Amino acid sequence: MASNSRARAKSSSSSKKESPDLQEILVTELQEIHSAEKQLARLIPRLAKAADNETLQECIEERLEEGEQILADVESALEELEATPGRKKNVAAEGLVNDMKEHVQELQQGPALDTVLIGALQKTEHYCMAAWGTVKALAQATGQQDLVGAMERALEEGSAYDERLTQLAESEITPELQSQGEGMEAEEDEDRLDASLGGAQMRRGKGRSHGVGHRAR
Question: Model's pTM, two decimal places?
Answer without folding.
Answer: 0.76
